[in-house]
Amino acid sequence: MGHYTQQRMRSLLNVKELCCKDGDIMTWKSDGRTKWLDRRTEYSDNGGQSEHPQYTVFPLAMDDVRCFVVCPFCRDIHVHGKSEGWRTADCPPDTPNAYYYLKFERNLPQ
């Protein structure tokens, strides 16, 4: 697994400010594609009582209207509007119940 530096991530996403720190994001290659893991992602299966586990994801970066997150299902970067709430993942159709909660942490860059 590797790490993306903040400078490299800003360049990749074409944003000025990131919402994560060095070490929050891990990457690796799978089938020639970069896969991502955000260590800040929270998982809950409600103590084994939930049929569908719930993920809470946090922004990698934001600009005036977009929010970039690491999808916990396909391990790719997804882009959503800049507001908190439930999101449907833009994964391939064979990913059932692919949704997560987008949550902003305190002290995000403006």
Task: Describe this protein's structure.
The chain has 110 residues and is mainly beta. It has one domain (2-102). The chain has one helix at residues 6-13, and strands spanning 2-3, 25-30, 33-38, 42-44, 54-57, 61-62, 66-70, 77-81, 85-88, 99-102. The strands form three sheets. A four-stranded mixed sheet has the order 4-5-10-9, with no helix packed on it. The longest helix is centred in the first third of the chain and has 8 residues, at 6-13. The protein starts with a strand and ends in an 8-residue tail after the last strand.
Q: Taking Cα atoms only, what radius of gyration do you get, to the nearest Å?
A: 14 Å
Q: SSE string, helix = H, strand = E?
A: EHEEEEEEEEE
Class by SSE composition: mainly beta
Residue share in helix:
under 10%
> What's the mean pLDDT score?
82
Query: What portion of residues belong to β-strands?
Result: 35-45%
Number of domains: 1
Number of strands: 10
- Helix count from the secondary structure assignment: 1
Biggest sheet, strands in spatial order?
4-5-10-9
Task: Sum up the structure in keywords.
three-stranded antiparallel beta sheet, mainly beta, 7% helix
